[in-house]
Protein backbone atom coordinates (compact mmCIF):
# COMPACT_ATOMS: atom_id res chain seq x y z
CA UNK A 1 0.00 0.00 0.00
CA UNK A 2 1.12 3.57 -0.65
CA UNK A 3 2.28 5.37 2.47
CA UNK A 4 -0.86 6.97 3.94
CA UNK A 5 -2.54 8.22 0.75
CA UNK A 6 -5.34 9.54 2.96
CA UNK A 7 -3.02 12.45 3.76
CA UNK A 8 -2.64 13.43 0.10
CA UNK A 9 -4.55 16.20 -1.63
CA UNK A 10 -7.53 15.21 -3.75
CA UNK A 11 -5.65 16.33 -6.86
CA UNK A 12 -2.72 14.06 -6.08
CA UNK A 13 -5.07 11.17 -5.29
CA UNK A 14 -6.89 11.72 -8.58
CA UNK A 15 -3.65 11.49 -10.54
CA UNK A 16 -2.54 8.39 -8.66
CA UNK A 17 -5.86 6.61 -9.18
CA UNK A 18 -5.64 7.27 -12.89
CA UNK A 19 -2.00 6.38 -13.44
CA UNK A 20 -2.44 3.12 -11.53
CA UNK A 21 -0.08 3.90 -8.67
CA UNK A 22 -2.99 3.86 -6.20
CA UNK A 23 -6.28 2.03 -6.01
CA UNK A 24 -9.45 3.25 -4.35
CA UNK A 25 -9.43 0.09 -2.22
CA UNK A 26 -6.00 1.03 -0.88
CA UNK A 27 -7.15 4.57 -0.19
CA UNK A 28 -10.37 3.51 1.51
CA UNK A 29 -8.57 0.90 3.61
CA UNK A 30 -6.19 3.61 4.79
CA UNK A 31 -9.17 5.76 5.79
CA UNK A 32 -10.77 2.82 7.58
CA UNK A 33 -7.56 2.34 9.54
CA UNK A 34 -7.70 6.02 10.56
CA UNK A 35 -11.01 5.68 12.37
CA UNK A 36 -10.82 6.71 16.02
CA UNK A 37 -13.94 5.23 17.65
CA UNK A 38 -13.45 7.28 20.80
CA UNK A 39 -14.16 10.47 18.80
CA UNK A 40 -17.58 9.10 17.74
CA UNK A 41 -17.82 10.89 14.38
CA UNK A 42 -20.36 8.42 12.98
CA UNK A 43 -23.83 7.34 13.89
CA UNK A 44 -23.49 4.53 11.33
CA UNK A 45 -20.02 3.46 10.18
CA UNK A 46 -20.10 1.31 7.01
CA UNK A 47 -16.56 0.16 6.13
CA UNK A 48 -17.70 -3.05 4.38
CA UNK A 49 -19.98 -1.11 2.03
CA UNK A 50 -17.17 1.39 1.43
CA UNK A 51 -14.77 -1.35 0.29
CA UNK A 52 -17.38 -2.71 -2.13
CA UNK A 53 -17.91 0.78 -3.56
CA UNK A 54 -14.15 1.27 -3.83
CA UNK A 55 -13.85 -1.98 -5.79
CA UNK A 56 -16.54 -0.73 -8.18
CA UNK A 57 -14.65 2.55 -8.62
CA UNK A 58 -11.42 0.66 -9.39
CA UNK A 59 -13.18 -1.65 -11.83
CA UNK A 60 -14.66 1.33 -13.68
CA UNK A 61 -11.25 3.00 -13.98
CA UNK A 62 -9.73 -0.28 -15.17
CA UNK A 63 -12.29 -0.19 -17.99
CA UNK A 64 -11.36 3.43 -18.82
CA UNK A 65 -14.60 4.71 -17.32
CA UNK A 66 -13.66 8.01 -15.69
CA UNK A 67 -16.83 9.21 -14.00
CA UNK A 68 -15.52 12.32 -12.25
CA UNK A 69 -12.97 13.69 -9.82
CA UNK A 70 -14.67 12.17 -6.77
CA UNK A 71 -14.49 8.66 -8.21
CA UNK A 72 -13.08 6.39 -5.53
CA UNK A 73 -12.91 9.20 -2.93
CA UNK A 74 -14.14 8.43 0.64
CA UNK A 75 -16.94 10.81 1.64
CA UNK A 76 -18.78 10.97 4.97
CA UNK A 77 -22.46 11.92 4.89
CA UNK A 78 -24.41 13.87 7.49
CA UNK A 79 -27.28 11.83 8.89
CA UNK A 80 -29.86 14.06 7.22
CA UNK A 81 -29.19 12.66 3.76
CA UNK A 82 -30.91 9.57 2.45
CA UNK A 83 -28.33 6.95 1.44
CA UNK A 84 -29.31 3.49 0.19
CA UNK A 85 -28.35 0.72 2.60
CA UNK A 86 -28.44 3.01 5.65
CA UNK A 87 -31.19 4.64 7.66
CA UNK A 88 -31.73 8.35 8.19
CA UNK A 89 -32.38 9.34 11.79
CA UNK A 90 -31.70 13.10 11.50
CA UNK A 91 -30.31 13.01 15.04
CA UNK A 92 -33.58 11.63 16.40
CA UNK A 93 -33.84 8.34 18.36
CA UNK A 94 -36.08 6.81 15.66
CA UNK A 95 -35.72 6.56 11.86
CA UNK A 96 -37.40 9.22 9.76
CA UNK A 97 -40.41 8.39 7.55
CA UNK A 98 -39.81 6.85 4.13
CA UNK A 99 -39.59 10.09 2.11
CA UNK A 100 -36.38 10.92 3.97
CA UNK A 101 -34.83 7.48 3.49
CA UNK A 102 -34.52 7.84 -0.30
CA UNK A 103 -31.49 9.21 -2.07
CA UNK A 104 -31.78 12.72 -3.46
CA UNK A 105 -30.16 14.28 -6.49
CA UNK A 106 -26.85 15.12 -4.83
CA UNK A 107 -26.23 11.60 -3.50
CA UNK A 108 -27.38 10.08 -6.80
CA UNK A 109 -24.92 12.26 -8.70
CA UNK A 110 -22.09 11.17 -6.41
CA UNK A 111 -23.07 7.52 -6.87
CA UNK A 112 -22.90 7.97 -10.62
CA UNK A 113 -19.33 9.21 -10.11
CA UNK A 114 -18.45 6.09 -8.12
CA UNK A 115 -17.80 8.10 -4.97
CA UNK A 116 -17.37 6.03 -1.79
CA UNK A 117 -19.59 6.64 1.26
CA UNK A 118 -17.94 5.84 4.58
CA UNK A 119 -21.04 6.20 6.74
CA UNK A 120 -23.51 8.56 8.37
CA UNK A 121 -21.99 11.22 10.62
CA UNK A 122 -23.71 12.54 13.72
CA UNK A 123 -25.94 15.60 13.61
CA UNK A 124 -27.74 17.71 16.17
CA UNK A 125 -31.34 16.54 16.37
CA UNK A 126 -33.06 17.83 13.22
CA UNK A 127 -29.97 19.98 12.61
CA UNK A 128 -31.32 22.57 15.06
CA UNK A 129 -28.25 23.77 16.95
CA UNK A 130 -24.77 25.20 16.47
CA UNK A 131 -22.93 23.61 19.41
CA UNK A 132 -23.14 19.98 18.27
CA UNK A 133 -24.87 18.39 21.27
CA UNK A 134 -27.02 15.25 20.89
CA UNK A 135 -28.35 13.51 24.01
CA UNK A 136 -29.82 10.59 22.02
CA UNK A 137 -26.69 9.37 20.21
CA UNK A 138 -23.93 11.12 22.09
CA UNK A 139 -21.83 14.07 21.03
CA UNK A 140 -18.68 13.62 18.93
CA UNK A 141 -15.51 14.78 20.61
CA UNK A 142 -13.58 17.70 19.21
CA UNK A 143 -10.12 16.15 18.64
CA UNK A 144 -8.36 19.44 19.37
CA UNK A 145 -8.89 19.11 23.11
CA UNK A 146 -7.15 16.00 24.41
CA UNK A 147 -8.14 16.61 28.03
CA UNK A 148 -11.83 17.55 27.87
CA UNK A 149 -14.86 16.49 25.86
CA UNK A 150 -15.31 19.73 23.95
CA UNK A 151 -18.08 20.44 21.44
CA UNK A 152 -17.34 19.69 17.77
CA UNK A 153 -19.65 22.41 16.44
CA UNK A 154 -23.04 21.84 14.88
CA UNK A 155 -25.20 20.93 13.45
CA UNK A 156 -22.95 18.80 11.19
CA UNK A 157 -21.24 17.63 14.36
CA UNK A 158 -19.51 14.50 13.07
CA UNK A 159 -18.45 15.94 9.72
CA UNK A 160 -15.38 17.88 10.81
CA UNK A 161 -14.33 15.10 13.17
CA UNK A 162 -14.39 12.58 10.29
CA UNK A 163 -11.92 14.78 8.39
CA UNK A 164 -9.68 15.30 11.40
CA UNK A 165 -9.30 11.59 12.03
CA UNK A 166 -8.88 10.86 8.31
CA UNK A 167 -11.77 8.42 7.93
CA UNK A 168 -13.13 10.59 5.10
CA UNK A 169 -11.55 13.13 2.74
CA UNK A 170 -14.74 15.08 2.01
CA UNK A 171 -17.71 15.51 4.34
CA UNK A 172 -21.25 16.35 3.27
CA UNK A 173 -23.13 18.69 5.57
CA UNK A 174 -26.00 21.15 5.52
CA UNK A 175 -26.03 24.81 6.48
CA UNK A 176 -29.12 26.68 7.68
CA UNK A 177 -27.44 29.21 9.98
CA UNK A 178 -23.83 27.99 9.95
CA UNK A 179 -24.00 24.22 10.28
CA UNK A 180 -21.19 23.56 7.77
CA UNK A 181 -18.94 26.49 8.67
CA UNK A 182 -19.15 26.14 12.46
CA UNK A 183 -17.94 22.51 12.73
CA UNK A 184 -15.36 23.19 10.01
CA UNK A 185 -14.02 26.22 11.85
CA UNK A 186 -13.76 24.68 15.32
CA UNK A 187 -12.10 21.50 14.01
CA UNK A 188 -9.56 23.28 11.81
CA UNK A 189 -11.12 22.50 8.43
CA UNK A 190 -12.55 24.33 5.42
CA UNK A 191 -16.34 24.64 5.15
CA UNK A 192 -18.29 25.93 2.15
CA UNK A 193 -21.86 27.21 2.41
CA UNK A 194 -23.16 27.27 -1.14
CA UNK A 195 -25.62 29.87 -2.40
CA UNK A 196 -29.25 29.15 -1.58
CA UNK A 197 -30.77 27.05 -4.37
CA UNK A 198 -27.42 26.30 -5.99
CA UNK A 199 -27.22 22.66 -4.89
CA UNK A 200 -30.21 20.32 -4.61
CA UNK A 201 -31.68 19.59 -1.19
CA UNK A 202 -33.87 16.68 -2.32
CA UNK A 203 -33.45 13.64 -0.12
CA UNK A 204 -32.17 15.78 2.78
CA UNK A 205 -34.35 16.10 5.88
CA UNK A 206 -35.32 19.80 6.02
CA UNK A 207 -34.87 22.09 8.97
CA UNK A 208 -35.95 25.22 7.10
CA UNK A 209 -36.92 25.15 3.42
CA UNK A 210 -36.51 28.94 3.43
CA UNK A 211 -32.85 28.78 4.50
CA UNK A 212 -31.42 25.26 4.03
CA UNK A 213 -28.37 24.78 1.83
CA UNK A 214 -26.17 21.74 1.28
CA UNK A 215 -22.42 22.13 1.52
CA UNK A 216 -19.05 20.48 2.02
CA UNK A 217 -16.24 20.31 4.54
CA UNK A 218 -12.73 19.59 3.28
CA UNK A 219 -9.21 19.74 4.65
CA UNK A 220 -8.06 22.54 2.31
CA UNK A 221 -9.51 25.09 -0.09
CA UNK A 222 -7.71 23.23 -2.87
CA UNK A 223 -9.71 20.13 -1.99
CA UNK A 224 -12.90 22.22 -1.77
CA UNK A 225 -12.39 23.41 -5.35
CA UNK A 226 -12.01 19.81 -6.54
CA UNK A 227 -15.11 18.67 -4.65
CA UNK A 228 -17.18 21.69 -5.68
CA UNK A 229 -16.31 21.14 -9.34
CA UNK A 230 -17.44 17.52 -9.09
CA UNK A 231 -20.70 18.23 -7.22
CA UNK A 232 -21.93 21.57 -8.53
CA UNK A 233 -24.53 21.08 -11.29
CA UNK A 234 -23.13 24.08 -13.17
CA UNK A 235 -19.52 22.94 -13.03
CA UNK A 236 -19.28 19.16 -13.05
CA UNK A 237 -19.56 18.83 -16.85
CA UNK A 238 -16.47 21.01 -17.28
CA UNK A 239 -14.01 18.79 -15.38
CA UNK A 240 -10.92 20.58 -14.02
CA UNK A 241 -11.71 23.93 -15.70
CA UNK A 242 -12.62 25.68 -12.44
CA UNK A 243 -9.39 24.55 -10.78
CA UNK A 244 -7.39 26.12 -13.62
CA UNK A 245 -9.37 29.35 -13.38
CA UNK A 246 -9.06 29.50 -9.61
CA UNK A 247 -5.29 29.02 -9.85
CA UNK A 248 -5.03 32.24 -11.86
CA UNK A 249 -6.41 34.44 -9.06
CA UNK A 250 -3.84 36.94 -7.77
CA UNK A 251 -3.86 39.15 -4.62
CA UNK A 252 -4.40 42.25 -6.72
CA UNK A 253 -7.55 40.80 -8.29
CA UNK A 254 -9.84 41.38 -5.32
CA UNK A 255 -10.59 43.62 -2.35
CA UNK A 256 -11.70 42.39 1.06
CA UNK A 257 -14.01 44.24 3.42
CA UNK A 258 -13.09 44.09 7.07
CA UNK A 259 -16.74 43.56 7.92
CA UNK A 260 -19.45 44.74 10.19
CA UNK A 261 -18.15 45.43 13.70
CA UNK A 262 -20.94 43.37 15.28
CA UNK A 263 -19.08 40.30 13.95
CA UNK A 264 -15.93 41.27 15.85
CA UNK A 265 -17.30 42.39 19.19
CA UNK A 266 -17.36 40.10 22.21
CA UNK A 267 -15.16 37.37 20.74
CA UNK A 268 -13.36 35.04 23.13
CA UNK A 269 -9.65 35.68 23.80
CA UNK A 270 -7.34 35.05 20.86
CA UNK A 271 -10.00 34.88 18.17
CA UNK A 272 -10.03 38.46 16.85
CA UNK A 273 -6.29 38.69 17.32
CA UNK A 274 -5.72 35.60 15.18
CA UNK A 275 -8.01 36.92 12.45
CA UNK A 276 -6.33 40.34 12.55
CA UNK A 277 -2.92 38.70 12.15
CA UNK A 278 -4.13 36.79 9.10
CA UNK A 279 -5.55 39.96 7.53
CA UNK A 280 -2.25 41.72 8.12
CA UNK A 281 -0.42 38.88 6.35
CA UNK A 282 -2.80 39.16 3.42
CA UNK A 283 -2.29 42.92 3.25
CA UNK A 284 1.47 42.52 3.26
CA UNK A 285 1.11 40.12 0.31
CA UNK A 286 -0.77 42.71 -1.73
CA UNK A 287 -4.41 42.08 -0.82
CA UNK A 288 -6.27 45.37 -0.44
CA UNK A 289 -8.44 45.61 2.68
CA UNK A 290 -11.04 48.34 3.18
CA UNK A 291 -13.60 49.22 5.81
CA UNK A 292 -16.85 47.78 4.48
CA UNK A 293 -20.01 47.59 6.53
CA UNK A 294 -22.77 45.02 6.34
CA UNK A 295 -25.38 46.58 8.65
CA UNK A 296 -27.94 43.94 7.73
CA UNK A 297 -26.03 41.54 9.97
CA UNK A 298 -27.38 43.20 13.11
CA UNK A 299 -31.09 42.60 12.37
CA UNK A 300 -30.12 39.13 11.12
CA UNK A 301 -28.66 38.33 14.54
CA UNK A 302 -31.83 39.65 16.17
CA UNK A 303 -33.83 37.26 14.00
CA UNK A 304 -31.54 34.44 15.13
CA UNK A 305 -32.35 35.23 18.75
CA UNK A 306 -36.09 34.77 18.18
CA UNK A 307 -35.76 31.69 15.99
CA UNK A 308 -36.00 33.36 12.57
CA UNK A 309 -38.30 31.16 10.45
CA UNK A 310 -36.46 27.90 11.10
CA UNK A 311 -38.16 27.11 14.41
CA UNK A 312 -41.63 27.57 12.93
CA UNK A 313 -40.80 25.55 9.82
CA UNK A 314 -39.31 22.56 11.64
CA UNK A 315 -42.26 22.60 14.06
CA UNK A 316 -44.68 22.32 11.14
CA UNK A 317 -42.51 19.72 9.37
CA UNK A 318 -42.48 17.44 12.40
CA UNK A 319 -46.22 17.83 12.94
CA UNK A 320 -46.91 16.93 9.31
CA UNK A 321 -44.40 14.12 8.71
CA UNK A 322 -43.06 12.76 12.02
CA UNK A 323 -45.40 13.73 14.85
CA UNK A 324 -44.10 10.96 17.09
CA UNK A 325 -40.67 12.58 17.09
CA UNK A 326 -42.02 15.53 19.02
CA UNK A 327 -42.47 13.33 22.11
CA UNK A 328 -38.79 12.39 22.25
CA UNK A 329 -37.16 15.74 21.43
CA UNK A 330 -33.99 16.65 23.28
CA UNK A 331 -34.95 19.41 25.76
CA UNK A 332 -32.19 21.62 24.32
CA UNK A 333 -33.97 21.40 20.97
CA UNK A 334 -37.63 21.14 21.99
CA UNK A 335 -37.80 24.42 23.89
CA UNK A 336 -36.76 26.40 20.80
CA UNK A 337 -38.99 24.43 18.44
CA UNK A 338 -42.01 24.99 20.70
CA UNK A 339 -41.34 28.71 20.72
CA UNK A 340 -41.26 28.71 16.92
CA UNK A 341 -44.47 26.77 16.67
CA UNK A 342 -46.26 29.25 18.89
CA UNK A 343 -45.84 32.29 16.63
CA UNK A 344 -48.75 33.56 14.57
CA UNK A 345 -48.99 33.25 10.79
CA UNK A 346 -48.66 37.02 10.48
CA UNK A 347 -45.43 36.97 12.54
CA UNK A 348 -44.04 34.15 10.39
CA UNK A 349 -44.83 36.09 7.22
CA UNK A 350 -43.31 39.24 8.72
CA UNK A 351 -40.05 37.38 9.33
CA UNK A 352 -40.07 36.00 5.79
CA UNK A 353 -40.60 39.51 4.43
CA UNK A 354 -37.77 40.89 6.56
CA UNK A 355 -35.40 38.19 5.31
CA UNK A 356 -36.18 39.07 1.70
CA UNK A 357 -35.68 42.77 2.33
CA UNK A 358 -32.38 42.25 4.16
CA UNK A 359 -31.12 39.97 1.38
CA UNK A 360 -31.79 42.58 -1.31
CA UNK A 361 -29.90 45.34 0.45
CA UNK A 362 -27.06 43.11 1.69
CA UNK A 363 -26.25 41.83 -1.78
CA UNK A 364 -25.83 45.45 -2.91
CA UNK A 365 -23.04 46.02 -0.35
CA UNK A 366 -20.36 44.38 -2.47
CA UNK A 367 -19.70 47.20 -4.93
CA UNK A 368 -16.29 48.11 -3.48
CA UNK A 369 -15.18 44.67 -2.30
CA UNK A 370 -15.70 41.09 -3.45
CA UNK A 371 -15.82 39.51 0.01
CA UNK A 372 -16.48 40.66 3.57
CA UNK A 373 -14.37 38.87 6.17
CA UNK A 374 -14.76 38.21 9.89
CA UNK A 375 -14.07 35.57 12.51
CA UNK A 376 -16.17 32.52 11.63
CA UNK A 377 -17.11 31.60 15.21
CA UNK A 378 -16.99 34.20 17.96
CA UNK A 379 -16.45 31.85 20.90
CA UNK A 380 -14.27 28.93 21.88
CA UNK A 381 -16.30 25.71 21.55
CA UNK A 382 -17.57 24.90 25.04
CA UNK A 383 -16.98 21.78 27.05
CA UNK A 384 -19.93 19.44 26.70
CA UNK A 385 -20.29 19.29 30.48
CA UNK A 386 -20.86 23.06 30.53
CA UNK A 387 -23.89 23.05 28.20
CA UNK A 388 -26.19 20.44 29.70
CA UNK A 389 -29.03 22.74 30.72
CA UNK A 390 -31.19 25.09 28.68
CA UNK A 391 -29.85 28.02 30.70
CA UNK A 392 -26.19 27.21 30.01
CA UNK A 393 -26.73 25.97 26.46
CA UNK A 394 -28.61 28.88 24.92
CA UNK A 395 -25.96 31.61 25.24
CA UNK A 396 -23.27 29.27 23.88
CA UNK A 397 -25.51 28.22 21.00
CA UNK A 398 -26.10 31.87 20.14
CA UNK A 399 -22.37 32.54 20.40
CA UNK A 400 -21.54 29.72 17.99
CA UNK A 401 -24.17 30.83 15.44
CA UNK A 402 -23.88 34.60 15.70
CA UNK A 403 -21.29 35.24 12.99
CA UNK A 404 -22.46 32.59 10.54
CA UNK A 405 -26.23 33.15 10.50
CA UNK A 406 -25.88 36.31 8.43
CA UNK A 407 -24.79 34.51 5.27
CA UNK A 408 -27.93 32.36 5.37
CA UNK A 409 -30.37 35.09 6.34
CA UNK A 410 -28.90 37.54 3.79
CA UNK A 411 -28.73 34.97 0.96
CA UNK A 412 -24.94 35.10 0.60
CA UNK A 413 -22.44 32.33 -0.08
CA UNK A 414 -19.64 31.87 2.46
CA UNK A 415 -16.57 29.86 3.30
CA UNK A 416 -14.39 29.40 6.38
CA UNK A 417 -10.66 28.71 6.24
CA UNK A 418 -8.47 27.71 9.23
CA UNK A 419 -5.91 30.36 10.21
CA UNK A 420 -4.66 29.62 13.73
CA UNK A 421 -5.51 28.85 17.35
CA UNK A 422 -7.23 30.89 20.06
CA UNK A 423 -5.98 31.28 23.62
CA UNK A 424 -7.57 27.95 24.58
CA UNK A 425 -5.66 26.16 21.81
CA UNK A 426 -8.77 25.65 19.65
CA UNK A 427 -8.89 26.34 15.91
CA UNK A 428 -9.96 29.75 14.60
CA UNK A 429 -11.57 30.23 11.20
CA UNK A 430 -11.59 33.22 8.85
CA UNK A 431 -15.03 33.65 7.27
CA UNK A 432 -15.45 35.08 3.77
CA UNK A 433 -18.93 36.12 2.60
CA UNK A 434 -19.74 36.93 -1.04
CA UNK A 435 -22.77 37.82 -3.12
CA UNK A 436 -25.38 35.23 -3.95
CA UNK A 437 -24.27 32.89 -6.75
CA UNK A 438 -20.68 34.14 -6.67
CA UNK A 439 -19.50 30.77 -5.37
CA UNK A 440 -16.73 30.40 -7.96
CA UNK A 441 -15.30 33.83 -7.16
CA UNK A 442 -15.49 33.04 -3.46
CA UNK A 443 -13.50 29.84 -3.98
CA UNK A 444 -10.93 31.64 -6.13
CA UNK A 445 -10.36 34.28 -3.45
CA UNK A 446 -10.19 31.69 -0.67
CA UNK A 447 -7.71 29.67 -2.73
CA UNK A 448 -5.51 32.71 -3.25
CA UNK A 449 -5.62 33.40 0.49
CA UNK A 450 -4.65 29.81 1.25
CA UNK A 451 -1.58 30.15 -0.97
CA UNK A 452 -0.55 33.23 1.01
CA UNK A 453 -1.41 32.02 4.50
CA UNK A 454 -0.71 28.32 4.07
CA UNK A 455 -3.02 25.39 4.64
CA UNK A 456 -4.73 24.70 7.93
CA UNK A 457 -2.31 21.88 8.63
CA UNK A 458 0.66 24.24 8.40
CA UNK A 459 -0.93 27.12 10.31
CA UNK A 460 -2.32 24.92 13.06
CA UNK A 461 0.90 22.87 13.30
CA UNK A 462 -0.87 19.54 12.88
Topology:
Layout: H1 10-19, H2 24-34, E1 42-45, H3 47-62, E2 74-78, H4 105-112, E3 116-121, H5 159-165, E4 170-175, H6 181-186, E5 190-193, E6 213-218, H7 221-231, H8 241-247, E7 255-257, H9 271-284, E8 288-290, H10 297-305, H11 310-321, H12 331-341, H13 345-362, E9 371-375, H14 390-401, H15 405-409, E10 413-421, E11 427-434, H16 439-453, H17 456-459
Parallel strand pairs: 2-3, 2-4, 7-8, 7-9
Antiparallel strand pairs: 1-3, 4-6, 5-6, 5-10, 9-11, 10-11
Q: Can you count the helices?
A: 17
Mean pLDDT: 96
Task: Identify the overall geometry.
Answer: globular
Q: Give the ordered list of helices and strands.
A: HHEHEHEHEHEEHHEHEHHHHEHHEEHH
Supply the CATH superfamily name. Amidase signature (AS) domain
**CATH level 3 topology:** Amidase signature (AS) enzymes
CATH architecture: Alpha-Beta Complex
Strand order of the largest sheet: 1-3-2-4-6-5-10-11-9-7-8
N-end to C-end Cα span: 23 Å
Structural class: alpha/beta
What is the C-alpha radius of gyration, as a whole number of Å? 20 Å
User: Could you estimate the helical fraction of the residues in percent?
Assistant: 25-40%
Strand content: 5-15%
By CATH reckoning, the class would read Alpha Beta
Number of domains: 1
Beta strand count? 11
Amino acid sequence: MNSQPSKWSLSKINRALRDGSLTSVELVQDCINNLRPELSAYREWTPEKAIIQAQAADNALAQAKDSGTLQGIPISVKDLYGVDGTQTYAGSPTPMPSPWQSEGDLIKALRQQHAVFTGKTHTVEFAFGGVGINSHWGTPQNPWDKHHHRAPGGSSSGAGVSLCEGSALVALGSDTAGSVRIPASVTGNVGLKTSYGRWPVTGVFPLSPTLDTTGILTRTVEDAVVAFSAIDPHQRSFGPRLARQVAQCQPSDFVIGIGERSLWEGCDPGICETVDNAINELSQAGVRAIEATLPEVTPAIELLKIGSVAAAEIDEMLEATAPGSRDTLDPLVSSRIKEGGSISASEYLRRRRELRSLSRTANARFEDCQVIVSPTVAITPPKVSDVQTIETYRPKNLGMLRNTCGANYLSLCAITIPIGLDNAGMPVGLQLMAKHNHDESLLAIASCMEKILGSGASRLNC
